Amino acid sequence: MDGGRVVSGSGQAVRNRRAELGPVQDRAKEAEVDGQVADFRHWLVADRGLAEESVRSYGIQAKKFLMGLTDPLEEALAGLDAAAVINFVIKQAGADASVWSTKAMVTALRSLLRFLHIEGRIQMPLAPVVPSVAGWRHSTLPRALPREQVQALLAAHDLGTPVGLRDHAILITLARLALRGAEVAALQLGHVDWRAGDVLVIGKGSRAERLPLPAEVGAAMVAYATRGRPPCNCRALFVTARAPYRQLTPGAIRAIMGRACGQAGLPRLGAHRLRHTVATDLVRAGASLAEVGQLLRHRSQLSTVTYAKIDRDRLGVLARPWPAGQL
């Protein structure tokens, strides 16, 4: 009996020790993964020239993949094969994942695998084995918001507070200039030319273009800059509400949009919905696709073509009559 108790006690001690080591081992693995991700992010910037938001998104997906590998990480990478990559994609592309989020995930994974092979951390070039995601461009209509919902979003903030002034200025900039969230976050104080009445926008690929500044947007920016923006050395137009004051991130713009949706009684929507809304309203008002593409600063006309589908009146002349008696 004594021997049995000793063995039982020893077994329990081992289990307790493993339980104690579990969090330590998890932290050690996460630190190792973070090192790999940091190297990957540096490569994306230095060698691939990706924008900050893309680097952030790729890094999140890279960490998710690496954390799912077995320990030790170095051996897991050395033995990585196509089956493990494909299984990861299938698992991530579950019922709750949208087509576009899955597409973003596989793009990031291909880039990570390319980096790992170039650096000699995996033996085989596994980027080509990442499955493609079925999803056809222009298969759906742009998702614009009704005018009353846009007004509800713009009226959702308390303009008596610094945060309310800032968030209102951000949303009205999105809603009137059709900027991307990252472009609003990147606006600097020096980008607004008050005398000329225009604003410099740094878009995709670091392209710099000037857009006319609507009076409504300019008034909201002035209200925030004079009554809501804290005095600080940061040159970004929109900064954090608490010190140390920093430029807002694209994620912060998404969070501001999400809070406004909640205050307006709407489901959580992305900031890009306001961009789609501006383009849709222009087409319905009779603007040409070339004009819409110029406002949205599309580099390719193919990016603007999707808005042609919402103009049913002009598309109607292209529809051919259905043959009589045919199913």
Task: Give me a quick take on this structure.
The chain has 327 residues and is mainly alpha-helical.
Please give a handful of descriptors for the protein shown.
327 residues; 55% helix; DNA polymerase, domain 1; 3 strands; 2 domains; hpI Integrase, Chain A
What does the secondary structure layout of this molecule look like, with pairings?
Elements: H1 2-46, H2 52-67, H3 73-78, H4 82-92, H5 99-118, H6 147-154, H7 162-177, H8 181-185, E1 192-193, E2 198-202, E3 208-212, H9 215-227, H10 250-263, H11 272-284, H12 289-296, H13 312-316
Antiparallel strand pairs: 1-2, 2-3
Helix pairs in contact: 1-2, 2-5, 7-9, 7-11, 11-12
Structural class estimated from helices and strands? mainly alpha
The major pleated sheet works out as: 3 strands, antiparallel
Mean pLDDT, to the nearest integer, reads: 84
By DSSP, the count of extended strands is 3
- Number of spatially distinct domains: 2
Strand order of the largest sheet: 1-2-3
CATH superfamily of the largest domain: Tyrosine recombinase, N-terminal domain
Low-confidence stretches: 1-8
State the order of secondary-structure elements, H for helix, E for strand: HHHHHHHHEEEHHHHH
- Please name the CATH topology of the largest domain: DNA polymerase, domain 1
Helix proportion of residues, in percent? 55-70%
Shape: globular
| CATH structural architecture of the largest domain | Orthogonal Bundle
The percent range for strand residues is: under 5%
Measured distance between first and last alpha carbons: 85 Å
- The level-1 CATH class of the largest domain: Mainly Alpha
Number of helices: 13
Q: What integer value in Å does the Rg equal?
A: 26 Å
